[in-house]
Amino acid sequence: MYNYKHYCKNLHKYIHIVDVCFFTVSQEQIKNLYQRFQQLSGNHEKISRDDLERIPALNNNPIRKQIITAFFDKRNQHQNDVGSLDEIGFEQFLMVMSHFRPVNSTATEEEKVTVRKQKLRFLFNMHDTDNDGIITLDEYRTVVEELLSQSGAIETEVARSIADAAMLEVASTNVHSPHSRPRMISMKESHLSILNRFRWINIFSMMSIRFLDMNSATMRCGKLSS
Amino acid sequence: MLTALIFTPVWITVRLLFNFCTMDLVFIRQAGTLLFICMILILLHGSRGEIPSKPIAATILPSVKPNDGVQTYAEDQKNNLPVFTMNYPRIQIPFEITLWVLLASFAKIGFHVYHKITIWVPESCLLISIGLIVGAIMHSVHEEPPAVLTSNVFFLYMLPLIVLESGYFMPTRPFFENIGTVFWFAVVGTLWNSIGIGISLFAICQIPAFGVQDINLQENLLFSAIISAVDPVAVLNVFEDVSVNEQLYIVVFGECLFNDAVTVVLYNMFSFVAEMPVVEPVDVFIGVARFFIVGLGGMAFGILFGFVAAFTTRFTSKVREIEPLFVFMYSYLAYLVAELFAISSIMAIITCALTMKYYVEENVSQRSCTTIRHVIKMLASISETLIFFFLGVVTITTDHEWNWGYILFTLLFAFVWRGLGILVLTQIINPFRTIPFNMKDQFGLAYGGLRGAVSFALAFTLPDTIGRKQLFVTATIAVILFTVFLQGISIRPLIEFINVRRTNRNLETINVEIHCRLMEHTMAGIEDLCGQWSRFYWKDKFMKFNNRILRKILIRDSRAESSIVALYKKLELQNAMEILDTASGDISAAPSIVSLSEEKKSSSKLQKKFLAADLRNIHDILSKNMYKIRERTVAYRGKHALPNDSQTREILIRRHATIRRSLRPRSCQSSNVPRTHKYFSLPAGKSLESRFDAARWHYTDDHETLSEVAYPSQRSRFGKPARSSSSKAMIPLHRLGTLEEVPSTDVLNEESSSTGEGVFRTNSSYSDSRVPRPRRLNSSFDDNNSSVDDLRNVHEEDGVEQVGQRQPSSPAPGWEAESRETTARNPLLRRPQWNPKKK
Fold this sequence. Notes:
The complex is a heterodimer of chains A (about 230) and B (about 850).
Chain A: H1 4-20, H2 27-41, E1 47-48, H3 49-53, H4 64-71, E2 87-88, H5 90-97, H6 109-127, E3 134-135, H7 137-148, H8 156-173, E4 185-186, H9 187-196, H10 203-217
Antiparallel strand pairs in A: 1-2, 3-4
Chain B: H1 2-22, H2 25-64, H3 71-79, H4 88-113, H5 115-120, H6 123-140, H7 151-168, H8 172-177, H9 179-205, H10 217-227, H11 233-242, H12 246-274, H13 281-313, H14 323-340, H15 345-363, H16 366-397, H17 404-429, H18 439-447, H19 453-460, H20 469-498, H21 510-530, H22 535-554, H23 563-585, H24 593-605, H25 612-625, H26 646-662, H27 688-697, H28 699-708, H29 712-718, H30 725-740, H31 744-752, H32 757-768, H33 772-775, H34 777-782, H35 788-804
Helix pairs in contact in B: 1-2, 2-4, 4-6, 4-16, 6-16, 7-15, 7-16, 9-10, 9-12, 9-17, 10-12, 11-20, 12-13, 12-15, 13-14, 13-15, 14-15, 14-16, 16-19, 17-18, 17-20, 19-20, 21-23, 23-26, 23-30, 25-35, 27-28, 32-35
Main location (chain B): membrane
GO molecular function (chain B): potassium:proton antiporter activity; sodium:proton antiporter activity
Subcellular location (chain B): Cell membrane
């Protein structure tokens, strides 16, 4: 069914990627992912935005747009590159997927921190659409509005006030930081805080806490059953 | 004689109770101890009193009834119409129960006076200790404990209360995330324990030296089923205090809940089997089949009743007073019906509570919701307290059959099999978990296996046909005392010592909720992308089903409400409550630094005189629009109606309007006056604007003051040290301002027409009517030369009113140019100029 030859040819490359991201998957699991990739792309080597948008199960997801965009975002490719791609190959697909790996129990503290940071970065990139390293209120509002869009009865007014309240909450918890300024959070700030401060003091550290759950929640990319 | 005996202590108790309320904390403990003694005396007298009083009642009653024929005798009786009579047997049982409950509750109050005690020694230990003391006193005067705790009482009245509480307060999300592990440990773990302990004890029984060869396998299994019910209330408290990771917490929680169910099923099965002369292999299979029927049947009943309950509360909006009743009645009904068909009633009540909770809490009013929660908590704690207390009493007063060998081996096996079980079961379940349990977690799980109230009650209500019932009760008590005292006390230091993974739970902020939802949706999306169906997929599907169908049927206001919005509303309500609390208390507080400085600023700006007509208008406006916090008129209402809460709602509406308005864009230049809006979940008195201004002008100052001022709810949430005096004075003032200034017409307009006047009004009404107004109200009318600030306030208020009446005489034409869509114009939404680029 799938392009086995191509797969075999590039297997070493994929394994290399896996090694780079210490993505604990076996070859079997990569194969599963590859199968799914082929299925999505219709046996092409590249996958395009339209392919992902065609997935029926994704239709009800309120943040479908963001998820799909995340796959084509160069920032999620572990290379210090900016911009977006039109199509992604399997390698890029793997790269994006690697954000969702669980931390295995043998990982060292440093590894855990790195993984957490990467996960954070992924989420941050979902918010930060204009890629300036800062989540502005407007960006945040968009996300909240979209999250709430599923339950149609909510007016945008409410969504906005929620987003504002949430942002203010962030601002209010940032009091101690000399870098803090109302209504925006820089990524640098958040990273500092994760490493140095008490965890709950700011929004991203909140996310990192949730990330402990997220790990539990994180689907293991490797364990694909289909 | 009897009268004196009983009434003297009662009288003393009443007096003491009276004093109790007025006394200082120092005396409370003394009073408490006195109370204990009194209560004990009462109990003793009460139980003694029944013996002589019965004949009295017996003689009085028949003497009147059958002797109708003998008129003279009866008239004799009538002539001596007793001035004072007493019929103790009539009230004996409820009376004694009430006293027991009271005594146990006093004990609880007693050891919460000293907080340190309950931190280091679990409450159950203390309760048992008090029970032991009471038991010792009763034993010394040769009293029997009242025969209250029978099998029926326990299963029909006490157990459902305990279970309902745990079921209702089960944290739903983590539970469903760990449902597999919870059931694995609850079902398989309990089976493992009971079978393991049972068989090993049976092996021990074969050793002639112990002299317990008459205990057969069935009875051993029955006993082991009893003592494998873990009940780690104490452990859960410890876990909550040190906030261990969610997975560990929920697994212990769920395990203790569901293994009660498993234990009761096993108990019923084994107590049936124990009386069978021969056990055929077929019976084993029937037993296994029955096990599943009982469990799943219970679940089915629970879900059914849960939905019915939710559906019923849909129609209770007119009869708010009886709303809470439905929760209790339906869950109890589920329990009883399940009991009727001899299927797992615990499963039924748990699933019923879990099912209905979500829908019921949306249907009922806020107050009913609080009532439901409190009553459930209260009933459960009474029930549990009584059992523990009773356990202490029984330990002393009953005859024990002490068999060193059997009891020590029971202790040993209970401990070993628990540890082994956790070790083995975790190894099996770990590969299926995303976050596996590490060794520390496993230790916490194994060591948290305290035995508790349920075990004792099950043992105590064993049928008398079991030959060695005494021995079983003794052994169970020994296991409970051993685990509760030794493990219960030592688990806190141990958990802290080995440093189990911890999480930060119970942090309710909007950001957390938003990001949780965001992550859930992301995960669901990624899973869809991978074509993998797992938890998130099913959750997604269920939520869709829930929103489309279930909510439409079960909830009155069936618009699906996102959890983010729900949390937002909840926080806002909390906030309104806090505002009301502080504002009404601190009206006369001194003006804060901030308001003083504002006064100075504004006084230089505004130099306007007022006319007499204006003043009259002002008076009208103020009397109409000031919010009357201290209004004390009592509304007349029907006998069964609750006091209406329209005032609270009004505040909430005002807050909504306030927040909405404060977030609207407005240009910084048009209103130079510092604003005093308060957002919830923001440092009090520090709106973003003021921060912004302060930051721009005096940056260092800003840093300091900001760190001082934090919003009280957050303070309490994070447990920060006491607030500084300046912020203390400030908070109520600003709050008061937000509460008072909004005229009611304003609110209405705000609700009906979202554009137009509402927008204009914001600046003036809002920023200027500050706290000093109500305080200096009189002075401003007495002489016109009072502070300019006040006059200004008033004037602005006037302007507001005019705008409200659609008279286009409002100042500041600049405002009109703004529309809400021009967010870019809002300086707060732009990046400040002084912001150095971070890249």
